[in-house]
Amino acid sequence: MLPDDVPPIGLGTAGVDDPALIADAIDTGYRFIDTAQRYGNEAAVGAGIRQADVGRDRLFVATKVHERNLAYEDVLQTTAESLDRLGIAQVDLLYVHWPLEAYDPPETFQAFDELYDDGRIKHVGVSNFTPALLDEAHDHLDAPITANQVEMHPLLPQRKLRSYLSTHDIALVAYGPLMVGDVFDVPEITAIAERHDVSAAQVSLAWLLEQGVYPIPRGDTPTHFRDNLAARGLSLDDEDLDQLERIGRTRRVYTNDTVWPTE
Ligand SMILES: NC(=O)c1ccc[n+]([C@@H]2O[C@H](COP(=O)([O-])OP(=O)(O)OC[C@H]3O[C@@H](n4cnc5c(N)ncnc54)[C@H](OP(=O)(O)O)[C@@H]3O)[C@@H](O)[C@H]2O)c1
Q: Taking the alpha carbons of 38, 42, 48, 52 in that order, is the dihedral positive or negative?
C-alpha cells in the first residue's frame, strides 16, 4: 500500500514538458507527481519541482523504467540517470512500466531489490501487471510491491484485479482516469455531472476515489488540473454510484494484447 500521507489525486505528466506548468500544478495542491523515462520529460518535471514553492520533502515523486531498460545493468544505470534528470537523490516510487521487451523477472527485480536496499527508491511499483504477472513478480522480489498502475475508469472498473490487489495490500494507481478525455461523451457520466453542476472529469475522478484508488489525470492545462483537484470535494450519492455501476459497457483505451486482452 502507498503511505497514508500520499494524496489520492496525482498529476499525470505524459506529454507535459513545461516546468512552469508542473510548478503551477504543485503550487495548486498536487503532491503526487507521475512521470516516466518513456515520456522524455523527467528533466522538465525535476525543474518544475525545483521552481515550485513546495519543498521536495512534501512531494511523492514516481517514475517508471522503460520496458527496453529492464535488464539488470540497464535498470541500475537508467534509474541513476532518471534521478539525475529529476535532480533528486531518491525516488519515492519506481515502477516497471510494462512487463514487455527486456522484462525478465529474476534480473529486473534483482536490480529493483538492490535499488530498494540502498535507498535510491523508497517503494517498488509495477504497471500494467495482471494477477498472474503479480504472482510471478512476488516470486522474484524481496521488497514489497506497493502499487500497480493500470488503466481504470467507470468503463473499466478492474473488479477482479482490485480484489487481488486488496488481498495483497497493493494500491491501484489509475491511469487514463478520464478515458483520455472521452468521459465527456459517456451519457451516464455527463448526466451525473449535470445533476451536481460539475464536470464529467470530476465525476469520473470522484468515482475512482470512492473505490479507494489513486487517479493520476494528465494535467497540461491549468483550468483542467484545477478542476480535477476539486473532485476531492465531490461526494457521489447512492443513486450516482448505482448509475455508474450499471453502465455495463467496457472500454479499454490503452490496449496491449501481449498483456491485456482487448475487451
Ligand atoms: N503506466 C502506463 O502505462 C500509463 C499509460 C498511460 C498514461 N499513464 C499516466 O497516466 C496519466 C493520465 O492518463 P492519460 O494522460 O492517458 O489520460 P487522462 O488523464 O484520462 O486524460 C487526459 C486528457 O483529458 C484532458 N483533461 C484533463 N482534465 C480535464 C478536465 N478537467 N476537463 C477537460 N479535459 C480534461 C487532458 O487535456 P489537458 O492535458 O489539456 O489537460 C487530456 O487530453 C498520464 O499523463 C501518465 O502519467 C500511464
A: positive
Cβ 129 vs Cβ 180: under 8 Å: no
Cα→Cα distances 4→58, 125, 171, 243, Å:
13, 16, 11, 30
63: CB partners within 8 A, 6+ apart: 34, 35, 36, 37, 42, 82, 86, 91, 93, 94, 95
Spacing, Cα 78 to ligand 1 middle (Å) = 25
Active site residue 175: no
One pLDDT digit (tens) per residue for the chain, 263 residues: 999 999 999 999 999 999 999 999 999 999 999 999 999 999 999 999 999 999 999 999 999 999 999 999 999 999 999 999 999 999 999 999 999 999 999 999 999 999 999 999 999 999 999 999 999 999 999 999 999 999 999 999 999 999 999 999 999 999 999 999 999 999 999 999 999 999 999 999 999 999 999 999 998 999 999 999 999 999 999 999 999 999 989 999 998 878 886 54
Q: Which domains does the chain have, with CATH numbers?
A: 11-178+214-219 (3.20.20.100)
Residue tagged active-site, from 30, 39, 175, 214: 39
Residue 66 C-alpha cell reads as 522503460
